Amino acid sequence: MILDNYFQRLYKHTIKKAAEFASDEINKALSTGGSCLDCGANTGLHFNKFNVDKNNYYGIEWDRDSVATAQKKGLNIIEGDLNKPLPYENNTFQCVFALSVLEHLLNGCLWMKEAKRVLKPKGKLVILTPNISTFFTIFLLLLGRMPSSGPHPDSKILLENRVATKAEHMDVEKDTPVHRHLVVFSYKELNKYLTLIGFKKITGHGFGLYPFPIFSQPFFERIDPYHCHQMVFTALK
Fold it and tell me: What is the pTM of this model?
């Protein structure tokens, strides 16, 4: 129990830091104006974090109920599948971002290509996503465990509370399952793929090198971003 609580605190701290960093990068991209595309927009949860008005904020979300809620708030969020071509013209957005979304896609590589297509020249892509090459994942594999439900330190809780105890509501076989990570990139492979499809000035940042304590995280994140739990990548078209 003590160990579980420790990793829960570390996980929450890591997610908070990574999300704040990603939001700062999005705001930097929008500081000179222009529109943004929120991929996996939910009900528009991220809208108030950014320096953008409703006319320049666009979103795409697969869940119909979330889209309906967003549209009632006057947000320009449409229903769509990020595994398919984006329904926008070339060179449309100053910033395209996906916060904890890439790992839920069946075809994340297509999404990254599409993100590049709809970005304006010198527009910015911002991705927040977990890293498959963590020490935590390696440890699970050594134990014979499959870390596909995370990989996070609360994988067991996710399985018990959202899947195993609610078998009648399991969504793991859907094209877009809510609670499962489908394809999780490593730090090096995500960097390599962004380079391959032609992005420029690609920068990766790691957050949360487990199992080290919170006070030591900034040091370890700098020296080894490759095995951090979360990663934020920015890149320019």
Answer: 0.87
